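[09:14] KT: can someone run the structure on this one? pasting the chain below
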Amino acid sequence: MKQICLVTLIAFLSLSAGCRKQDEISSYTVPKGSASQHSALPDMTAAPAKPTRMLAAIVPGSPQNWFFKMTGEPDQVKAEFDTFIQFMKSVTIKNDKPEWKLPENWTQEPGSSMRFATLKVKETDPAVELSVIPLPAGGDLTADLLSNINRWREQVGLDSISAEDIKAAADKSPALDTELFTLKSGDETISVVSLNGMMAGNPMSRAPFASGMMGGPGGPAAGPANPPAAAASIKYETPAGWQPGRSGGMRKAAFNITSGDETGEVTVIDLNGESNPLLLNINRWRDQVGLKDITEAELPQQSEQLKVGDLEATYVKLIGPEDAKPRLAILGTIFYRDNLAWFVKFTGPVKLAEQEQDRFKQFVQSIRFE
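[09:31] RB: done, structure tokens below
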């Protein structure tokens, strides 16, 4: 039927009215637990990708893991490699909070919203900083590590790795060009990545997900912590004007939306449900557009419920402050199925979000599983 529609459109583009994109049902099957066979390309919806190096580390803890991340121009970050390693070796967790020895050429600033602290390298232009963020630990440390490391790898355009790669990292020594290795700090084993790739200037995909992680948010994760026994397929109706985007790995679907000179993106991502509480992820989205956190009591007034088949989904419309530059918006929906949390999210300019809101809701409500 799709082929017939395609021929009809080609032959009678100016006359055809019965074969439209909004009527098309798209579906595919994604085996849970299999890594993407395609390279994760940088997100091009906000700015051209540029060479980037990332140093990041995960310090396990209870009830939360701690994420340390430095990203910047390759030469700048490369110059901080030895300092970063020594800094991470000094990190200890006491009374559920990290303590460290601050390097002489770094400064420390108070955290805000999700950030526990921000550390900056003195006299760098553009400024090089390291963020420190806590998120709830999941029940499986390997799954937590995998989802977060794969999200970081996705951000710089690298393929996802597997649980076996996580285990192999224990035998590797720290080196600038070793992508994954471990450090010892007291009794703790710290997982460290040193990644060199390309990153787009998308402010929406920088913080980790609460999967112990992402995006998401884990990146294109090799699989959730407790995958279903059988593969699942997802079906949906593609709204008119939405073009296929970069999918694979944790991205079960993606679309690019263009209107004039504005662009936005819609992604469909699944992550471990137990370690992805609803409020924490909504507050993560709020932080991304410059809004303050809300409480559990405030959530019903700040959201609405949508039906996804027989599932209940929480929908939020988040508009950045008027004085924000750029002023961004998120249309986001979170729902839970079996042991997975599903995130359907639009990110883009406010005007485009307003324009696409109804289509976004219709898309969410069209999602079905087989």
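[09:33] KT: thanks! The longest strand covers residues 188-199.
[09:34] RB: yep, looked fine to me
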